[in-house]
Amino acid sequence: MTDPSTVVGLTASFTPQPLVRPLRAALESALESVLGDSATAEVLVADFNQVHQTLLDPASSFEKPLDRLLVLWRIEDVFSAAVTIWVIESGDASALVADVRQLGALVAQAAAAGVPVVATIPPVPEFSWLDPLDTRTSVRLTVLHGQLVAAFVDGIGQAPVTLVDLAALQRQHGSARAHDTRNDLMYHQPYTSEFAKVLGTLLGEALAQLGRPTPKVLAVDADNTLWGGIVGEDGADGILIGDSFPGNGFRALQQGLAYQAANGALLAMVSKNNEQDVEEVFDNRSGDMVLGRSSFAAKRVDWNSKADNIAAIAAELNLGIDSFVFIDDNDVELDEVRQRLSGVEVVKVTDEASEIAELTAGFKAFRFARVSQEDRERTAMMQIEADRKSAASGALSHEDFLRSLELTVRVFEPTEAHVGRVAQLINKTNQFNLTTIRRDEAEVAALVADGTHRVYAAEVSDRFGGYGLVAVAIVETGAERWDVDTFLMSCRVLRRGVEDAILACIAEDAAAVGATALRGRYVPSAKNVQVADFYTERGFSSSGEGQYDAVLPIAPAADHVTVLRDA
Predict the structure, then answer these.
(1) pLDDT in tens, 242-251
(2) Which letter does DSSP use for residue 359 in this model?
(3) Which ranges constitute the DSSP H helices of 429-528?
(4) Could you read off the pLDDT of 213-258 as tens digits, one per residue?
(5) To bridge 104 with a disulfide, which of 116, 152, 421, 475 should be the other Cys (CB 3.0-4.6 Å)?
(6) What is the DSSP string of 253-322?
(7) Type and span of the H or E element at 41
(8) Distances (CA, A) of 42 to 6, 11, 111, 144, 162
(9) Would you call the peptide bond into 213 cis, given omega within 30 degrees of 0 as the criterion?
């Protein structure tokens, strides 16, 4: 972030001033940890309970342009009359559900305008005059709350909105400790000072997380981490894992790791052990284990340095060291990784079963992650990639290998549903990235809807399976010349002809509307030197200052690639 101050617009259905100080403190602290310099945040508060009006026209509610928009709301504030009548008279809630869905759509509309949006999930409505344990209404309110939350999320759809679960936070803190009836009646400020600090801090952390990558790999030890005991000494049948205490603490840890793997993280086993002993655990204790062999994208089970093995896994997966979290019970191992691989986050596993069970619940870096379908399929994709590498090693030449792949590239213009994945690629891709311009989801959504730019995405598959959405290009479309602003691609499909297929599609589209030239740019970075000659190798001529021009048409895609075009 280049601006000296991050400007946050805050619109709320209640008086939010007590949240501002802890929010700013958390946001500034998180930004400083990333930027390495002092960071300041300014919070501008819109008029009281004008959530709809602010979402319809954010610019009119604040005195300066925003870097973030924060939307806080409670059902009993925004829809006071409707929900009160429903509670008292047990009426039909369909109109209320529709109104909440419309509010979600307004949040999505604001996000599409180009400013990143954070919005809260509202808690179950509370009324000072109603016994919260009165089951005549409490059960109905819980059911209604679920319907309204579902409607709100449905209204947001695939828009780039980060959600903060105020309902879950209030449950965790305790509703009675969170709510202050006197403050609510006097100032429309429903929360205690204690809870306001907790909520403000969480909101600041959510705002700071926007655009920041989440960890990609959880590198985990085996003995006294995935299970209790040392398999080399206790044997596969003697280790502690299963439904009984304390083995159920380790089982809970495995469940947490499996959850993270199902939602985009890669698991890697890094264990000083005899590989045969570890394999016996998977063979003999599979009924007690949650994780199996296929759960891991990579393994290093040997007696080498764990720091060396983590570095080797990073090279194997083609990922940066700073995307790793290392989980181990041994202080010496953790300290070596901390010293030698400074970008790796280290997490200590204690010998207390309850703390082991809760360990993955403390992974706050995943708290506000948006998960794409590619994220969910990442481990399977990595395992398929191992099959591709095996095929490559057996081919007579690289050209023979490429022909054997039966590669298909589907090039299309992304929709709202693809914005999250496109932004993810833009912010994490370093090696094949011609300009390394970073953009958040709101900016991507705005470009997708912008008539002066065309956004391209590419999904790739071959005879082994799919790679998912792995390439993005953003092009400024002029009458006579198209300018490639962004061109990037996952390292998983490097040197397979995918880049030429996409470039050929861009050139074809430009020529189809009368353009006669295509311009590309290369902005050097510490990690993209391998694409320094990308344009000149494809016949473009340097026009100075990192710009390269070509006269249309240009060469078509390689003949070993099947290109599909979708509207």
Answers:
(1) 999 999 999 9
(2) G
(3) 441-449, 498-512
(4) 889 999 999 999 999 999 999 999 999 999 999 999 999 999 999 9
(5) 152
(6) HHHHHHHHHHTTPEEEEEEES-HHHHHHHHHHSTTT-S--GGG-SEEEEESS-HHHHHHHHHHHHT--GG
(7) strand 40-45
(8) 6, 14, 20, 36, 20
(9) no
